[in-house]
Design brief:
2,3-dihydroxybenzoate-serine ligase activity, alpha/beta, 15 helices, Polyketide synthase modules and related proteins, disordered C terminus, elongated, 14% strand, four-stranded mixed beta sheet, four-stranded parallel beta sheet
Length: 476
């Protein structure tokens, strides 16, 4: 920018520009980097990143559409503005915590992703200027490198604790910032997936480098919008600190400002707008009480809270007069519960769907187990409309049982194992269920009946698998 101003001013004044000589050229930097980044130096950098990024999980953000098999990079942007008051409060919190504003914002955004996904192992890509030598400050060229900042949000910690974790991760990453991202990917050799970027799918950047005002004789300069229609990742957050004089299109003179770039293959604009609202609400909650646990921090906007209150105060009306549920409408109308569940499986197969004492199940794993049960029920004679008893404790078996029965086309009869024996006997006799799903430790407690017993905590009977289409067609 300085060289542009110098050359333009000289042109207007009819003289040759006088530019100070550069100490080095970009080729000098490239040569230095190749010679320095080898041997023991390279191995130390690689060793850190191999340890830091071992068994890196894939972030499973809820989306509006299934992920395409091949990433298209189609995208759009949504503006983001944080008030001057909130910006000042975030800066104060950062100073009190011995962290930078970037660290605080990154910790907040990782908290938002945790609240959206339930995943406690969050990795985000963050660009770094990589101009840590004075000779590079005025040199034209692309030096930016991507750092993968991976944070542990397990244990429902306070935000202040998360900020400390993020600070430590960032400081260590800065010490190992010289390894080019492409060399890191080559060394780690992750399983390639054409549908997403390797190592991270969400990026976060805070632009805080001071920009000198650009003044050209006889001209008034204003930023112009430029919508590229593309994005490199699922989500990219770009924020600028307040600026004075010439600023970018997204930069404000009051408070943080910027935009979120998002994949239009995955997300609708309305969803990104809600995400920004949740992020701002979360930031306000953080500065109000940084010692609150992550689960206790607010997320819903005031408008959403008012809507929930209005819904709760609405009088009940006859079912036939109720409007169609929006989720059903969005997914095509009269779909059954298990169809809605399968739609969510397609949107986020690796997201956590269920957590129990036995561990966690992703949507994909839960769906597979429910499908297996549905096939077994079908092979055992369950047909559309048949009643199937379900007597289990509060566990993953309960959810698998409900989904499996619905997928097979049946209707489940809930039988609480804590009911008195007489009550359970009456329900089994009254409903005449031909099949009863339960758990092995409950079998001896159940009253005698004509129902065939199938224990969900035992391996399901092996039988030739019917075509999945046949099972699905016999559902509702």
């Amino acid at each position: 920018m300085k060289e542009l101003a110098c050359c333009y001013t000289a042109f207007v004044e009819g003289r040759s520009p006088s530019l100070p000589p550069l100490p080095i050229q970009y080729t000098d930097f490239a040569d230095w980097q190749r010679r320095w980044l080898q041997g023991e130096v390279l191995e130390k950098q690689l060793a850190y990143w191999r340890t830091q990024l071992q068994s890196l999980p894939v972030l499973q953000l809820p989306s509006d559409r299934p992920r395409p098999a091949v990433q298209t990079y189609r995208g759009a942007t949504y503006p983001l503005q944080i008030s001057a008051t909130l910006t000042q409060a975030l800066e104060t919190l950062s100073q009190q915590s011995g962290a930078s504003l970037f660290m605080t914002l990154l910790a907040a955004f990782q908290t938002l992703l945790y609240r959206y996904t339930g995943q406690t192992d969050i990795a985000i890509g963050c660009p770094i200027a990589n101009r840590h030598r004075s000779e590079l400050e005025g040199l034209i060229g692309f030096f930016v490198n991507s750092l993968v900042l991976r944070s542990n949000l397990s244990g429902d910690p306070t935000f202040r604790t998360v900020l400390e974790r993020v600070r430590n991760v960032a400081l260590e990453a800065y010490k190992h910032q010289d390894l080019p991202f492409e060399k890191l990917v080559e060394a780690l050799d992750p399983d390639r997936d054409l549908s997403r970027n390797p190592l991270f799918q969400v990026a976060f950047a805070l632009q805080n480098a001071p920009m000198q005002p650009l003044e050209l004789p006889g001209l008034t300069l204003t930023p112009a919008p430029l919508e590229s229609g593309s994005t490199r990742f699922d989500l990219e957050v770009h924020l600028w600190e307040p600026a004075h004089g010439l600023r970018s299109l997204w930069q404000s003179q009051e408070g943080l400002s910027g935009f979120i770039s998002y994949s239009t293959d995955l997300f609708d604009r309305d969803r990104i707008g809600r995400l920004i609202g949740h992020f701002q609400t979360l930031l306000e909650g953080i500065v109000a009480n940084p010692d609150a646990s992550l689960s206790a921090l607010p997320l819903l906007t005031p408008a959403e809270q008012q809507q929930l209150t209005a819904w709760n105060r609405s009088p009940l009306a006859p079912l036939k007069k109720q409007p169609e549920v929006s989720l059903l409408k969005d997914l095509g109308g009269s779909r059954c519960f298990h169809h809605l569940f399968e739609a969510q499986v397609a949107l986020a197969p690796e997201a956590i769907a269920l957590v129990s004492e036995q561990g966690a199940l992703t949507y994909r794993e839960l769906n597979q187990q429910a499908d297996q049960l549905a096939q077994t029920l079908h092979q055992m004679g369950t047909r559309p409309g048949d009643l199937v008893g379900l007597c289990v404790d509060r566990s993953a078996d309960m959810v698998i049982g409900i989904l499996g029965i619905l997928k097979a086309g049946g209707a489940y009869v809930p039988l609480d194992p804590n009911y008195p024996d007489d009550r359970l006997h009456f329900m089994l006799t009254d409903t005449q269920v031909p099949l009863l799903l339960t758990q092995s430790w409950l079998v001896e407690q159940l009253p005698r009946s004509q129902a065939t017993i199938l224990c969900l905590d035992q391996p399901l009977p092996l039988a030739p698998s019917p075509q999945r289409e046949q099972v699905e067609s016999e559902g509702c």
